[in-house]
Fold this sequence. Notes:
The protein is mainly alpha-helical. The protein has four helices and no strands. The protein has helices at about 5-20, 20-45, 50-55, 55-60.
Amino acid sequence: xxxxxxxxxxxxxxxxxxxxxxxxxxxxxxxxxxxxxxxxxxxxxxxxxxxxxxxxxxxxxxxxxxxxxxxxxxxxxxxxxx
Length: 82
């Protein structure tokens, strides 16, 4: 009586699916999986993959530049005195 059977868990799962819907649950699962993947990659990069980053300095220093033409205008802002 202290532990739940498989039927209890199936009823709970059905209620959760009805409340949240399958699409929202799928998005939550994808977000959780992505967070775990990013965490593992960051732990791996901190533990010793630093030489790989220094092997490709050209790719990391490449910056795309754009020229944006337009008119710069100043806005007057009023500040409330406290």
